[in-house]
Design brief:
Elements: E1 7-9, H1 14-24, E2 28-31, H2 37-42, E3 50-53, E4 63-66, E5 69-73, H3 78-83, H4 85-90, H5 92-98, H6 104-107, H7 112-117, H8 125-131, E6 135-140, E7 143-148, H9 149-152, E8 153-155, E9 158-159, E10 166-173, E11 178-184, E12 194-202, E13 208-216, E14 223-224, H10 226-235, H11 239-252, H12 263-284
Parallel strand pairs: 1-3, 2-3
Antiparallel strand pairs: 4-5, 5-10, 6-7, 6-10, 8-9, 11-12, 12-13, 13-14
Length: 285
């Protein structure tokens, strides 16, 4: 199908983009890579009268690592995340996740900002950002504010971002312990039937000093599994504690039946993916 008529705007600064959103109000939508918005426009599920394209704003494209913090501009593409040697050292799980998003053509256009800001429960980056305990920087008419990834997602396609705000940056602590992003999908390029982001840090005495688990496409928002993460830090990582963590995570999800299968199948797939990701992350720790 063909999208409805719209006016196209390409501001060259963040201030200009925020000003356009304030001026145009609810009739405007921000576009980054476009892989979420354009299909919805073609289906007439979204019919904005104005598109505000961010691709000419150079300040929104960067990867900086300093003082133990990673900062990534919202317009940084998945391909740039994959190709960054600095990011690979600071947070290798980002590359592992990006390589499982869609296909190379999409990864050259799709951006980290678009992936996390849209609120699509099938997107891979939101759960990863929850595992990383990331923060999102939002700019609007009233200035800038930061929102934790674990507080950002409210329901499918509903987030803490106001309509007049633009997500400009993602930041999180460096993480060099054990990691894994495992994803079960029907075919290459598809959304996940079930996916898990896991971070585990092994202390000198062999205990687990840090654990974070988050799940993709198993509820109407990404799911951060706080109880399972805490259990691993308290009990250590073993076959029994992994089994306990998997069951705890399964109790946190609410999958629904769709063309990827019934809810019970998704729980079964999630349990396998979780066990595999926990074992992989611990072996890397």
């Amino acid at each position: 199908m063909i999208p409805g008529r719209f006016e196209y705007h390409q501001p060259d600064s963040l201030a200009a983009a925020v000003g356009l959103l304030s001026e145009l109000g609810e009739d405007a939508r921000v576009i980054a890579g476009g892989h979420s918005l354009i299909p919805m426009m073609k289906l007439r599920l979204a019919m904005p009268e104005h598109l505000v394209d961010l691709k000419a704003i150079d300040t929104l494209k960067h990867i900086n690592v300093a003082d133990g913090v990673v900062r990534i501009g919202a317009m940084t593409t998945q391909a740039e995340l994959i190709g960054s040697a600095e990011l690979q050292l600071a947070a290798p799980i980002v590359k592992e996740t990006s390589l499982q998003i869609a296909d190379p053509q999409i990864r050259y256009q799709g951006t980290i900002g678009g992936n996390v800001a849209n609120g699509d429960p099938g997107n891979d980056m939101p759960a990863l950002m929850q595992a990383l305990d990331a923060s999102f920087t939002l700019h609007g008419p009233g200035g800038a504010r930061d929102v934790k990834a674990r507080d950002f997602y409210e329901a499918a396609y509903f987030t803490a971002r106001d309509d007049l705000e633009i997500l400009t940056e993602v930041s999180f602590p460096t993480c060099t312990g054990g990691y894994a992003y495992e994803k079960q999908k029907r075919k290459i390029g598809d959304y996940a039937t079930a996916a898990a982001a896991v971070l585990l840090t092994k202390a000198a005495d062999g205990s687990c000093s840090h654990a974070a688990i988050a799940l993709t496409n198993l509820a109407d928002t990404p799911v951060f599994c706080d109880a399972a993460s805490t259990h691993l830090m308290q009990s250590g990582v073993s076959a029994d504690s992994i089994a306990h963590a998997v069951q705890s995570c399964i109790s946190d999800i609410e999958p629904v039946e769709d063309n990827r299968g019934p809810a019970e199948f998704k729980k079964h797939a999630a349990a396998i993916i979780l066990k595999r990701s926990l074992e992989t992350a611990w072996s890397r720790a």
